[in-house]
Amino acid sequence: MTFSLHGLAVGGGIAIGRAVVVAASRVNVAHYFIEPGAVNVEIERIRRARDAVIEEMHRMQHSISLMGPKDTPHELKALLDVHLMLLQDEELVKGVKDAITDRLYNAEWALLTQLEVISRQFDEMEDAYLRERKVDLEQIVEKLLRVMQGQAHDATTKLSALAQPKPVQTSADSADVPLVLVAHDLSPSDMLEFKQGVFTGFVTDVGGKTSHTAIVARSMGIPAVVGARASSQLVRQDDWIIIDGDAGVVIVDPSPIILAEYQLKQRQFIQDRLQLSNVRELPAISLDGHVVDLLANIERPDDAATALASGAVGVGLFRSEFLFMGRLDRLPDEEEQYQAYRLAVEGMQGLPVTIRTVDVGADKPLDGALKLESHLNPALGLRAIRWSLTDPPMFLTQLRAILRAAAHGPVKMLIPMLAHLSEIRQTRALLAQAKTELEKSGLAFGDIELGAMIEIPAAALTLKMFLKYFDFLSIGTNDLIQYTLAIDRADETVSHLFDPAHPAVLRLVADTIAEGRAQGKEVSVCGEMAGDVTMTRLLLGLGLRSFSMHPSQILAVKQAVLNADIGQLQDWAQMVLAHEEPATLLAG
Ligand code: PEP
Ligand code: MG
Fold first, then answer.
1. Which of 455, 509, 546, 550 to probe ligand 1 with, by most ligand atoms within 8 A of CB?
2. Is residue 59 within a helix (H) or strand (E), and if so which, with residue range?
3. Structure confidence by residue, pLDDT tens digits, 424-471
4. Which residue, of 24, 294, 454, 505, has the greatest Cβ tally within 10 A?
5. What is 36-150's CATH topology?
6. pLDDT score, position 389
7. Are 216 and 226 in contact (CB under 8 A)?
8. Looking at ligand 1, which residue's alpha carbon is closest to its atom 6?
9. Which of these, 21, 534, 35, lies nearest to 240 by C-alpha position?
10. CA–CA distance, 285 with 561 (Å, rounded to integer)
11. Residue 347 and residue 355: Cα distance in Å, rounded?
12. Domains 3-24+163-255 and 36-150 share a fold
């Protein structure tokens, strides 16, 4: 039966494919296609894991039998019996084998797929006691996964296995149709691992439009919808679904008519993109001759190639924290960071690269697990520069690495989340120290321009101080909106109030641009607002000449710049600023 789910539009067009539903806690279990020749190896892996768990249970049963009846909890014995029974359940075993043989899923993926199928059957049971046995099944699967992770196997147990999709298989149903991922939540680093993976679209239950997970999805130019509430419960494994990333709609089990309509839309989207590529080689100059810098936001050094291909005239934001995520056990050392930054700098072939110092915390935990223990208000907590300043040796390592990369091309350094003079002073002192250390050690390094992100209202309101200490400013509208309006950007329940066109937000943005220009300092916008074509004319009218966005958005914004007569937009922009409902003027 066809039904639709509504969430938040991340963009990227239309994806049509079969759903792969991944349970929240298991998102970082490997999902990849195996070669047809590896089917037996995979079945053997699951068989060995099952044998190991059964053996462990028999051992437990034995030790229980040695206890006196008084010491033996009756429930424990019954629980072991249930678990043993489930482990030997034919449906579980057969389903897993079928998914490996017919669909060429790796063992873990096959196991999780079958868990989903059986879990739904438990959910539908009338008897409450039987329904609750689903928990036992989940525990069994958890045990099997743990044993498999411990097994020597050349496949990585992380999502990164998805980054190297196997050639499309012909014999398996699911291997030659597009797959779309449906999950409760994905961390930004999980999402990044999906780049060039097997999934052609994403749906998550939670997340805001400018959550970092959405940002990474947008950077991939793949259709995605976040904040679609109960999607991971309502969509079933293998359901056909349509993701309309521009409307924020997910259609499950579409009828042939709906399917045909969306296939048409999909073709139209691809056509429009092709059309836009005509402006790739043109410089971004408005009708009245203003040159506008369109820069790229990147997450990894090798994104530089995509940035160049999109016609970006530099990198306006390299989110360096993606080098740090999932590395809690060992953060990248100076050499590793230096090589990564150098790769980006060389990749941009002489165009400037703005490297932002690490911004972890809030919805970008260093490690997924940290999320669970995070503080009550992580967005207001130890994040970005605050985090860096708590560990000067770690911060110095990054500063040195960036300075060394500057020996290979133009580099700018951007500091996130500043609000206090003390933070500015400490940062500058550490930067001076990093230079002295490099001089002493004789390692080559280059000059950098130092910039501040304006993303906390306190910074926007004390701009004169920032302009005194920094060479340039970059407005982080995602956080500026979050902190001005007190809306958690990652929380879909308040996403309707996350309003880029709120008069207070526009006022702070406008004043920052005006003040920076008055003092002859470059101001850019690197938040999602920069890539939103409905805001381009306003930002141009307010005097912005530097926009940094996902490479996939550059051509559309360039088209808007080419069509703009900025001289005529200035008065209109002031009118928008003064309006109590600016959005009504922007839409037109
Ligand atoms: C911003 O806040 O607008 C920004 C660009 O930084 P991030 O999205 O990484 O917080
Ligand atoms: Mg920010």
1. 455
2. helix 39-66
3. 999 999 999 999 999 999 999 999 999 999 999 999 999 999 999 999
4. 454
5. Enzyme I; Chain A, domain 2 (1.10.274)
6. 97
7. no
8. 476
9. 21
10. 7
11. 14
12. no
Compute, in angstroms, the gap from residue 475 CA to the centroid of ligand 1: 8
Domain ranges for the chain: 3-24+163-255, 36-150, 293-587
* pLDDT for the residue 146: 81
Q: Say which ligand is closest to the CA of 215.
A: 1
If phi over 0 gives left and psi between -120 and 50 gives alpha, with beta otherwise, what is residue 9?
beta
Tokens of 526: 């690197």
Return the structure tokens found at 558: 């360039």
User: Has residue 376 got a pLDDT over 90?
Assistant: no
Residues in contact with 522: Cβ distance below 8 Å, sequence separation at least 6, in sequence order: 471, 472, 473, 516, 546
Find out whether the beta carbon of 400 lies less than 6 Å from any atom of ligand 1: no
Residue 351's contacts (CB-CB under 8 Å, 6 or more residues apart) are: 308, 312, 313, 314, 315, 409, 410
**Is 90 exceeded by the pLDDT of residue 189?**
no
C-beta 477 within 6 A of ligand 1: yes
- Higher-confidence position of 287 and 72: 287
Residues contacting 124, CB < 8 A, separation 6+: none
- Residues with CB under 5 Å of ion ligand 2 are 455, 476, 479
Of the CA atoms within 13 Å of residue 191, those in its CB half-sphere come to: 32
Find out whether the beta carbon of 357 lies less than 6 Å from any atom of ligand 1.
Answer: no
Q: Give the 3-state secondary structure of residue 375.
A: coil
Can you tell me the distance from the alpha carbon of 45 to that of 107, in angstroms, rounded to the nearest whole number?
Answer: 7
Q: What is the CATH number of domain 3-24+163-255?
A: 3.50.30.10
Question: For 373-379, what is the mean pLDDT?
Answer: 70
Burial group, residue 465, by CB count within 10 angstroms (0-12, 13-18, 19+): middle
State pLDDT tens for residues 467-506.
999 999 999 999 999 999 999 998 989 999 999 999 999 9
Quote the radius of gyration of the chain (alpha carbons, Å).
26
Which listed ligand is nearest to 474 at the C-alpha?
1
* DSSP bridge partners of 450: 413
**pLDDT for the residue 171:** 37
Q: Which residues are catalytic?
A: 212, 526
Task: Decide if pLDDT at 60 tops 70.
Answer: yes
Strand segments, DSSP code E, in 124-267 are: 179-183, 199-204, 224-226, 240-244, 249-252
Report whether CATH 3.20.20.60 matches the domain 293-587: yes
- The residue type found at 418 is L
What gap in Å lies between CA 251 and CA 414, rounded to an integer?
Answer: 41
The residue-averaged pLDDT of 183-201 equals 78
Tokens of 137: 């099944």
| Interatomic CA distance for residues 218 and 527, integer angstroms | 12
- Burial track 574-583 (b if 16+ CB lie within 10 A, e otherwise): eebbeeeebe
- Residue to mutate (ligand 1; options 191, 477, 478, 487; most atoms within 8 A of CB): 478
